[in-house]
Every structure is written in structure tokens, then in C-alpha cells.
Amino acid sequence: MTDLSGSLFRIRELLELLLFKLEEEQLLLTAGRGRWLPHATREVEVVLEHIRVAEVVRAVHSDRAAEQLGLPAGSGLAALAQAAPAPWSDLLHQHRQAFMVLTAEISNLAANNRDLLTAGLRAVRETVLAVVGDTGTYSSRGQSVAASTRARLVDEAI
């Protein structure tokens, strides 16, 4: 049980680090600092890889704990917490509650970041189309035909 608890603490630390990295990414997105997004994304990917490794370790410890408690391998944390004696039961319930809170926060933040990225992509696409122009239509041969050539104003602040 000690090994399981230690691996659960490690995963909680990694989830909190992931949450922090996603918040960093969101700050970059909202500040319009796209230059640093590849670095922030890489850091998120590194943390996710650490979580994958920690999950394998947790699964091994979880299966050992399940065996000790007379539960089948692959039993969930709720089942382990229910079958574990005190004080392990309380500790496993606390881990489970923390995981539920952290995963909800991570899911919300990831969704918000995805929305910000989508909005940013849409803004870039609209700006490029405003400057370059769109293709308008296709000819009878399937080639792109410019809709029209017209004067354009370019905002130098872009």
C-alpha cells in the first residue's frame, strides 16, 4: 500500500504540474505571445510523457495492492479504497477526490486553450484573406480564379 500511495502522490504532483503548464500556455495565448507557444506545448508534452510512465508504475502497484486485498487485478481506485483497511482507506479516498478535481480543472483548461487556439487561427486566416484575397471561384477547368482585383488598405500595425 505504501508503494501505491507513493505512486499516487507522484501522479498528483505531475497533474498539478500539467495544470500549471496549461495555465502558462493559456497566458501566452491570451497575451498574444505566439512565439513561445511551441516551447509551452513541448513542456506540456514532456509532462504528459512523465504521467504515462508514472501511470505504468501506478498500475503495477495498484495490481499488487489489489492482490493483497483479495481484489482482481485492474481494480479501480474506488474499489481499492473501499477494501483497504484504515488509514489506507481514507488516504486512497483522498487521492481519488484529488484526481477528480485535478482532471476536471485540466479538462476545462485544455478546452479553453483549444478555443483560444481556434479563435487565433481563425483571426490569422481572416487577416491573410483580407491581405491576399480569396480565390473567389473556379474556372470550368477547375483552376482557381481570383474574384476581383481591388485596392486594399493595409494596417501597418498588423
List the helices and strands and how they pair.
Elements: H1 2-31, H2 37-68, H3 77-83, H4 88-132, E1 137-138, E2 144-145
Antiparallel strand pairs: 1-2
Helix pairs in contact: 1-2, 1-4, 3-4
Question: What this model shows, in words?
Answer:
The chain is mainly α and 158 residues long. The chain has one domain (2-129). The protein has four helices and two strands. Helix 1 (2-31) runs antiparallel to helix 2 (37-68) and helix 3 (77-83) packs antiparallel against helix 4 (88-132). The relative contact order is 0.11. The model has no long low-confidence stretch (mean pLDDT 86).
Radius of gyration: 25 Å
- Total beta strand runs: 2
Unreliable sequence segments: none
- Separation, N- and C-terminal Cα atoms: 58 Å
State the secondary-structure class. mainly alpha
How do the strands line up in the largest sheet? 1-2
**Largest pleated sheet:** 2 strands, antiparallel
Round the mean pLDDT to the nearest integer and report it.
Answer: 86
Q: Into which percentage range does the β-strand content fall?
A: under 5%
User: Helix share of residues?
Assistant: over 70%
Order of helices and strands: HHHHEE
What is the overall number of helices?
4
Tally of discrete structural domains: 1
**Morphology call:** elongated
